[in-house]
Amino acid sequence: MTHPEPAPQLAASITGLYVSFWLPGLVLTAALVIKLPSILKLWRDPLLRAVGGLLLFACAVFVFAAPSTIAWTNRVTGVPNIAAPWVYSLITALSASWLLLVVHWRNGLTERSAETRRATRWVVYAYATVVVALWTLFALADIPVERIEDLDTYYASTPFMREEILLYLFAQALACSITTRLVWNWIRTDGLNGWLRWGLRFLGIGFATNLLFSAAKLTAVVARWTGHDLDWLNTNIAPSAACIAATLVAIGFIVPHAGQYLHERWLVRRRHRELGPLARLMRTVAGGREPLALRTTPEMRLIRRETFIRDALLQLSRFLDEDLRARSYDAAVALGIERGRAQALAAAVTILDAVETRRYSPDADGDGDPDTTYLLQEIAAVSDVLHSPDEIKAVRARAAVPAESMSTDEHCVFPGDNPRAPGRKAGRRG
């Protein structure tokens, strides 16, 4: 039996399409590390076990399918091409893990149903049978010449090895087709959060790209049967497609976790930044800077800033003028401001007034027992309106119209501005 040699010019022309086996291996390992704590903590969850099995088998495939590892396996065992059934078995196990994953995804919390158990047994038995057949066919085949990168096409017409190659490719293509269809069906369902939907998109594209691996391999094998040379599909396109597909699948598992984590961190940092104006105002009340620890977590820095603001507001509470807050709210509404923002503006005007009163009349007391519930709960809204001094000025001026002790051209004073003349609210404070 003769084996046509690959066309050197054509093979060389597509060499640049090759993608390293170690790239998807690293990304898959990262995905496995991210998922491992959840898998170990909730090991009884069959869905997480399926995810763990998928990532583990995927990592193993790209470790043992690398040309250097194939040569090492053959050399250590002393059996030419024994790496072939081993890699084929890993690919088959990976294909089974895809199907197990979608079986449990589809059934959700009903994974213990008879239908799910029956589907799980069918997948396990069917693909275990394929693995046994792969090793049996390898034992029957006569393949003495070691081939590191082009074994599928080199032995495409060899008895038993031909059947083995077709068997693992069809088993992989079938699992990939079913998984791709089910994943894309799930993407279209309602109730998925944004990060999970993006993760599923990457998974769907990754599984679909795996079909290119099977198609390229099968096309190259059929070409050998007909006396043509399309080995570059087997040695370049198929491995590259597999690497890209595995990388996309790994990203699909990483995106929901990493995306949610980064989004939560961003929200924490944004809230910390948004509280800046109110925190700076409260420094004039607390008489110093808020607690700061450079090495602490963003969540702890946010908690410390919120605590600092609320403690300062409690110190300021006896200077709060509830009547001024009510007038300021009515003034803001009269100016056409939405009620939620009007409430925040009224609170800001009241706080600024209390800061000034405390500065110039530290012994003064407000009337009654002011309600600080809103101020303590809605510090973010109050801090936000402090970014709009012109709006506060307008509300404050309108709220001052009924008060005989305040002129209509009174302006909003922030820390650092020129103070007003003493005795600004002598009539109110008493």
Q: Specify the overall morphology.
A: elongated
For the record, give the distance between the C-alpha atoms at the N and C termini, rounded to a whole number.
111 Å
Quaternary class: single chain
- Residue share in helix: over 70%
Q: Which parts are unreliable, with pLDDT below 50 for 5 consecutive residues or more? A: 1-18, 403-430
CATH architecture of the largest domain: Up-down Bundle
CATH topology of the largest domain: Rhopdopsin 7-helix transmembrane proteins
- Residue fraction in strands: under 5%
CATH homologous superfamily label of the largest domain: Rhodopsin 7-helix transmembrane proteins
Instruction: Please work out how many helical segments DSSP would assign.
Output: 18
Q: How many domains make up the 3D coordinates?
A: 2
- Main sheet specs: none
Structural class: mainly alpha
Mean pLDDT: 80
